[in-house]
Design brief:
It is a single chain. The protein is 85% helix and 0% strand. By secondary structure, the protein is an all-alpha fold.
Length: 261
């Protein structure tokens, strides 16, 4: 019986790899991608980067302006994530199998979260450009909608996983719905929720850099401006500042996770 089970798993794995290989070959043929040329061009790309894409002493004069745009990007990302998390908690409580009010509201909450989660932040930015134009507000709402959808799904799974036993115990004692939420669900789920929020902040700072290219704001627009004007030394300084900021924030987030979890 066990031998048949493993044989079936091997067949399924082989079938998946075969399908993946066929799809890859078809994609290469349709797009006319030259694999050999792609790999042989890498040394030239690296050579160009080391020869042109590095900061100089003159580019350091632009560092204060770059830091201002970086701070703007970080603040927008944090604001969009935290506000999105507040709405996500409400929808997660209504959508969780453990705490939902009824099937109707639970289905609505999960459906809304699914729609928002499956539309990429770049797509949100392009949609919102028609309403708000190129501004920080467009980037904020794009990150907010993406954060709301992702965090709602994450919070729903957290509540279902962490709070099930304690909720049942409180229900057995006759506790009210709001007592269950504030005495069981929120306290037991909060550390994991904070971890998800920190993860989303990291993700949004990375996404905000790309969103800035579309919305004409933040550090992404600054990079695009200098890169298109062929000021590669300043553009490289922007990339270095972004990388340092992301690594620093990730280090802080990992420390906070270790403390609270």
């Amino acid at each position: 019986m066990q031998a048949n089970y493993f044989a079936k798993k091997r067949r399924n794995s082989f079938s998946f790899l075969l399908i993946l290989g066929v799809v890859t070959i078809l994609a290469i043929l349709i797009t006319e991608y030259n694999i050999v040329k792609g790999f042989t061009s890498l040394p030239k790309a690296v050579e160009w980067a080391f020869g042109n894409f590095y900061p100089t002493l003159d580019s350091l004069s632009k560092l204060p302006d770059i830091l201002d745009k970086l701070i703007e990007t970080i603040l927008v990302s944090v604001a969009a994530t935290t506000v999105g998390a507040a709405f996500a908690i409400l929808f997660a409580i209504m959508g969780s199998n453990t705490t939902k009010v009824n099937l109707f509201f639970g289905s609505i909450s999960r459906g809304v979260a699914t729609v928002f989660r499956n539309i990429d932040v770049a797509a949100w930015a392009m949609i919102l450009l028609f309403s708000f134009g190129q501004s920080s507000l467009t980037g904020y709402f794009a990150l907010f909608f993406g954060s709301f959808g992702f965090l709602t799904r994450a919070f729903v799974e957290t509540i279902d996983e962490v709070s099930g036993g304690s909720v049942e115990a409180l229900r057995a004692t006759g506790a009210s719905y709001f007592s269950i939420i504030f005495q069981s669900v929120v306290p037991s789920s909060l550390p994991q929720m904070i971890s998800w929020v920190l993860f989303m902040i990291e993700t949004n700072i990375r996404s905000a850099t790309l969103i800035g290219l579309l919305t004409g704001s933040g550090i992404g627009f600054t990079f695009n401006l200098y890169y298109k004007s062929l000021n590669y030394d300043i553009a490289s300084l922007v990339v270095i500042v972004i990388a340092i900021a992301i690594l620093s924030i990730e280090t802080i987030s990992n420390y906070v996770r270790r403390v609270i979890l």
